[in-house]
């Protein structure tokens, strides 16, 4: 019995010592664990030229103990669906981020975790790009902006300074904040703030529009001359009609010329700012809400050139230095002269993220980027080798071709001629009068206009701008007119198919293009449903949507070309 008691006593003493040691170890570890305080935060909310909202949170932290391996920051979850990009960086590094993470154990926040592989810096910036759906311009003199007035942090900050950056001469009207600049001392953790502000500014300073794609082609010829071409796909997102857009050309670009998607000459671009090489493009047709346009600007380009060896040249390009908007997708294509060989293609930002394509005589380099802002400025050094003997390649090729054709004609001419046989050409089954063709084109354009009106009506009712009862009445009226036009177009189309020849071929092309558009619209609805259910990530959704929009734009361009050809046949 005494032995059992002694054993139990020793067990109790051993466990007490064990727990004491564990407690001490935890205390030592806790003293050495990562901890920090936030000295100040600079929260900048900037409205870009095309209505997107860029938020910069620059933080200075003071570390005690080990440097933290990550940092949490966010804002109310209602802004989460509007997040297009997030970048964390300091003067020397760009840090990886994880989007849509919990803000510790608090709900209702959209959190972002910034990872510091080498330990946290003392000063760093987290940049967000939010969609232009947060900015509303209904055609009046006022703009309405919904934005997070403060960042959401997991620790308090000594000071939080806020600036709302708008175009020059913008005027404060009203809002939940009192001015464009304000600050708060002893800023609390887990601040939940959704604010609104109304301001006025000249209509040409901000355009609520989507620059869906920019294709920049840099073409080098055999004489060392460089020509650039920028092709934009633009969609109006404001209630006000869009008549123009300001674009920024590369440095040292000159003699710009604009043309529409059918290569028709547009008004010459008007210079706005010589320092940033900014020009205003007057659109050929005004764009209503939801309507899109495609246009291109060609220009001459002078860049710095250096030569190391004979026949080898290095060109240095700079891109997007003065960009003040958000572009959903950018393609930069370098086209070299025939016979040129790329020796190196260097850029610290893109690294190996480019595609080199080769055909029989020519090489092309393509850089593809998503979601471009001013932060994404980059330089390219392109080194290529070119032999001047290629200057005579095309003339020699043409000379040989003409010689071969001439010999073939001479041989055929000397052969005995076969007796001629008369062939009677088939007559056209149905003759078409010009007014029939003109009526078809007019009705088709009316049909397109009604479809756009229905799409605009759906967008307005979703935003709550018109009552649902009024929406049903207007949509029923439009659908009735659409059904009548569709029946009339079907009859006219059959007559044109029966006419054969050019008209039958154009009707076949028109049917293929319409089928393509219907298929694309069905696919867009499918990916929108998958994205809303969470089955499709934002990046995959945006990539698929861009591909579908490109297919739809190509099909619509085909339809416009067919209608233009038919209208020319009536003259």
How is this structure best described in words?
It is a single chain. The protein has 571 residues and is an alpha+beta fold. It has three domains: 35-200, Immunoglobulin-like, CATH 2.60.40; 209-389, Immunoglobulin-like (Sandwich), CATH 2.60.40; 434-569, no CATH class. Helices cover 31% and strands 37% of the residues. A hairpin with a 4-residue loop joins β4 (83-89) and β5 (94-95).
By CATH, the topology of the largest domain is Immunoglobulin-like
The biggest beta sheet, please? 7 strands, mixed
Q: What average pLDDT do the residues reach?
A: 82
- CATH architectural grouping of the largest domain: Sandwich
Given the C-alpha coordinates, what overall shape results? globular
**The level-1 CATH class of the largest domain:** Mainly Beta
Helical fraction: 25-40%
Question: How widely separated are the two ends?
Answer: 121 Å
Can you count the beta strands? Answer: 29
Tally of alpha and pi helices: 6
> Which class of secondary structure composition applies to the elements?
alpha+beta
Poorly predicted parts: 17-33, 348-352, 420-429
Q: Please state roughly what percent of the residues sit in beta strands, choosing from under 5%, 5-15%, 15-25%, 25-35%, 35-45% or over 45%.
A: 35-45%
Task: Characterize this entry briefly.
The chain is built from six helices and 29 strands.
List the helices and strands and how they pair.
Layout: H1 2-32, E1 35-47, E2 53-64, E3 70-76, E4 83-89, E5 94-95, E6 97-103, E7 106-115, E8 123-130, E9 135-136, E10 142-147, E11 152-153, E12 157-165, E13 171-175, E14 181-187, E15 195-200, E16 209-220, E17 226-236, E18 242-248, E19 253-260, E20 270-273, E21 278-287, E22 292-301, E23 304-307, E24 312-319, E25 327-335, E26 341-346, E27 355-358, E28 363-372, E29 378-385, H2 393-414, H3 434-462, H4 468-499, H5 501-533, H6 538-569
Parallel strand pairs: 1-12, 16-25
Antiparallel strand pairs: 1-2, 2-8, 3-7, 3-11, 4-5, 4-8, 6-7, 9-10, 10-15, 12-14, 13-15, 16-17, 17-22, 18-21, 19-22, 20-21, 23-24, 24-29, 25-28, 26-29, 27-28
């Amino acid at each position: 019995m005494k032995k059992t008691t002694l054993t139990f006593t020793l067990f109790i003493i051993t466990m007490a010592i064990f727990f004491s040691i564990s407690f001490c170890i935890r205390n030592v570890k806790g003293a050495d664990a990562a901890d920090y305080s936030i000295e100040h935060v600079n929260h900048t909310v900037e409205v870009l030229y095309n209505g997107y909202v860029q938020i910069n949170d620059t933080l200075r932290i003071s570390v005690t103990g080990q440097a933290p391996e990550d940092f949490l920051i966010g804002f109310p979850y209602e802004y989460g669906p509007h997040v297009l990009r997030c970048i964390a960086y300091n003067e020397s590094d760009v840090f990886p981020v994880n989007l849509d993470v919990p803000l510790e154990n608090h709900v209702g926040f959209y959190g972002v975790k910034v990872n510091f592989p080498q330990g946290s810096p003392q000063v760093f910036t987290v940049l967000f790009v939010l969609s232009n759906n947060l900015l509303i311009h209904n055609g009046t003199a006022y703009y309405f902006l919904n934005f997070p007035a403060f960042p959401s942090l997991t620790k308090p900050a000594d000071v939080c300074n806020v600036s709302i950056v708008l175009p020059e001469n913008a005027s404060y009207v009203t809002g939940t904040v009192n001015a464009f600049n304000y600050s708060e001392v002893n800023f609390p953790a887990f601040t939940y703030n959704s604010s609104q502000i109304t301001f006025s500014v000249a209509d040409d300073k901000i355009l609520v529009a989507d620059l869906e794609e920019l294709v920049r082609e840099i073409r080098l010829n055999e004489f060392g001359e460089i020509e650039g071409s920028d092709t934009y796909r633009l969609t109006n997102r404001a209630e006000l009609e869009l008549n123009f857009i300001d674009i920024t050309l590369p440095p040292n670009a000159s003699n710009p010329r604009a043309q529409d998607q059918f290569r028709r000459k547009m008004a010459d671009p008007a210079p706005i700012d010589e320092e940033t090489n900014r020009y205003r493009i007057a659109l050929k047709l005004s764009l209503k809400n939801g309507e899109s346009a495609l246009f291109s600007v060609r220009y001459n380009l002078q860049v710095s050139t250096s030569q190391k060896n004979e026949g080898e040249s290095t060109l240095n390009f700079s891109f997007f230095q003065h960009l003040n908007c958000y572009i959903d997708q950018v393609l930069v294509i370098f086209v070299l002269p025939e016979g040129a060989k790329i020796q190196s293609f260097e850029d610290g930002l893109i690294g190996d993220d480019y595609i080199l394509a080769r055909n029989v005589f020519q090489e092309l380099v393509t850089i593809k980027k998503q979601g471009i802002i001013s932060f994404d400025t980059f330089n390219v050094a392109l080194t290529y080798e070119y032999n001047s003997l290629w200057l005579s390649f095309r003339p020699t090729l043409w000379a040989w071709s003409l010689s071969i054709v001439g010999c073939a004609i001479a041989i055929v001419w000397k052969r005995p001629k076969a007796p001629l046989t008369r062939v009677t050409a088939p007559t056209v089954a149905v003759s078409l009068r010009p007014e029939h063709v003109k009526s078809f084109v007019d009705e088709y354009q009316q049909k397109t206009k009604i479809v756009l009106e229905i799409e605009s009506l759906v967008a307005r009712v979703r935003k709550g701008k018109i009552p649902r009862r009024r929406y049903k009445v207007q949509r029923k009226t439009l659908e009735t007119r659409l059904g009548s036009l569709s029946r009339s177009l079907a009859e006219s189309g059959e007559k044109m198919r029966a006419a054969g020849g050019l008209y039958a071929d154009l009707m076949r092309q028109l049917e293929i293009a319409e089928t393509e558009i219907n298929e694309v619209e069905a696919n867009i609805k499918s990916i929108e449903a998958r994205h809303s259910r969470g089955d499709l990530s934002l990046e995959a959704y945006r990539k698929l949507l861009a591909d579908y929009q490109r297919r739809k734009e190509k099909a619509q361009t085909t339809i416009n070309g067919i209608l233009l050809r038919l209208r020319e046949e009536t003259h």
